[in-house]
Amino acid sequence: MVRTPLTPEERERGERLGRLLRSARGERSMVEVAASAGLSAETLRKIETGRAPTPAFFTVSALAVALGLSLDEVAQTCVLVPLAPV
Amino acid sequence: MVRTPLTPEERERGERLGRLLRSARGERSMVEVAASAGLSAETLRKIETGRAPTPAFFTVSALAVALGLSLDEVAQTCVLVPLAPV
DNA sequence: AACTATACCGGTATGAGAATGGGTTTCTCG
DNA sequence: CGAGAAACCCATTCTCATACCGGTATAGTT
Q1: What is the pTM of this model?
Q2: What DSSP assignment string belongs to chain A?
């Protein structure tokens, strides 16, 4: 096995990331935010809809800057799923 | 052109990210940190050496957790390169 | 009704991340 | 000297991110 396919958990994580980014976008248009972050609107749409569940680090970083988000908060929101609590 | 090849600037950015992660690793071994972050040692080595200049967001996120780094600081350190100074 | 803007969707193409395995070097310790 | 760890390097392979295209749907405006 060379490259493990994405697990359902990873896809759910991507969906959480997408929902977070979309809510942060608010009323602004996809085209505007995507241009502000330096990526295509199609890519932004796929990330927001969860169809690109594991985007590149600097892509998310640019989006966080464009949306005024903290990367640490973004990561925590997406990763901190209730798994194996104490 | 469907997928633009990485520019030299993007590769330099990846090298900065790699140097930052390596210095944060300190005396710990690659195998240990990679296992702690849930990725292979080869992948960590490629990221540290800049041969994987645009790693996935959650990969860097897991590394930041394993190394005790702030994602925002990581992003700033890598993106905030002295370009076009006054 | 026609036009515009926005977003969704499927398909296509390509570059690159991620993992594996094998090989090499260097260092340290028994 | 031999064994082991640690890091580097290369080749291969699978999967996916990114981008562009065309088409569709909806809502708002004129």
Answers
A1: 0.88
A2: --SPPPPHHHHHHHHHHHHHHHHHHTTS-HHHHHHHHTS-HHHHHHHHHTSS-S-BHHHHHHHHHHHT--HHHHHHHHH----S--
